[in-house]
Each structure stands twice: as structure tokens, then as C-alpha cells.
Inverse folding.
């Protein structure tokens, strides 16, 4: 369900552990779609407070999740990966919001998309400078603002 401009529109509900499981599963799904591996030790998980348009922060437990993991896929594979994601996820209800094929360390591969039905966002992109840090491929997901099921939504 897309986010509304009304701050009191009911939020999607999901327990944090279920959101984390979805993020793990979805990044693994993107890796399978593109036939690359993931490096579990690079996983980063961040539950963040939802901040309103006027910088308001609710105290009802609402959150968004940012989940990130890297792949050892070499840069020679990054264009193929973002092309595959562009093709496959566009067919599955995702709107592509950013796309670039790999050219070099300064114009690296980027794929960003938003699920039109539930506003989940997914990304695959080249990370690292290539000089001091090896260039890797990262996969990430971000949920919209969500509320744990047992909590009463605060009204503004």
C-alpha cells in the first residue's frame, strides 16, 4: 500500500523480526535471480525511526528497516546483474527509479526500484573505490514506515 500524505493513514503492520526475515529473503532472491553469491559477514541491519514531513517522530514504535549485504561479484558482472534486475523486477510490479550500467569507478552500476504496491525499495549497486577498497556489488532493501501489529497507531 503506497504511503499517503495524510499522517494518520493506517500504516502497514509487521513485526520487526518478520521485516528482517523478508529483507534477508529478498536480497537472497535478488542474488539468485542474478546468479551471484552474497557475503553474509557484510550484512548491515538498521531499524530507523520514521520522521514525518514536519520532522515529527511518533512514539508508537513505528520504524523502517534498511538492510544491506555485499556480493563478491566482480565488476565485469555488475552490468549483467543490473540489467537482469531491471528486466525481472520491472515485470514483478517494481518501478525503476534509478539505473546505470557499469562504466568505471566513477560511473558504477546502479539499479534502484520501488514496488508500486507496497513501497518497498530495492537497490543493487557497485560500492568501493577500487583503489583502497575492492569494488563489490551491494544489495539492499528499505521498507516503508511500518508499525508492529500489537501497537495502537499514534495520531497527529
Amino acid at each position: 500500500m503506497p504511503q499517503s500524505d495524510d499522517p494518520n493513514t493506517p500504516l502497514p503492520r509487521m513485526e520487526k523480526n518478520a521485516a528482517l526475515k523478508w529483507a534477508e529473503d529478498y536480497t537472497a532472491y535478488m542474488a539468485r535471480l542474478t546468479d551471484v553469491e552474497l557475503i553474509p559477514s557484510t550484512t548491515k541491519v538498521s531499524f530507523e525511526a520514521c520522521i514525518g514531513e514536519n520532522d515529527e517522530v511518533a512514539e508508537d514504535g513505528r520504524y523502517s528497516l534498511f538492510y544491506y549485504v555485499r556480493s563478491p561479484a566482480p565488476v565485469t558482472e555488475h552490468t549483467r546483474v543490473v540489467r537482469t534486475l531491471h528486466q525481472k523486477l520491472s515485470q514483478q510490479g517494481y518501478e525503476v527509479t534509478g539505473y546505470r550500467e557499469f562504466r568505471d569507478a566513477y560511473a558504477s552500476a546502479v539499479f534502484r526500484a520501488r514496488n508500486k504496491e507496497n513501497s518497498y525499495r530495492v537497490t543493487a549497486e557497485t560500492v568501493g573505490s577500487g583503489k583502497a577498497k575492492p569494488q563489490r556489488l551491494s544489495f539492499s532493501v528499505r521498507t516503508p514506515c511500518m508499525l508492529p501489529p500489537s501497537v495502537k497507531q499514534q495520531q497527529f
Observations:
- The two ends are 20 Å apart (CA to CA).
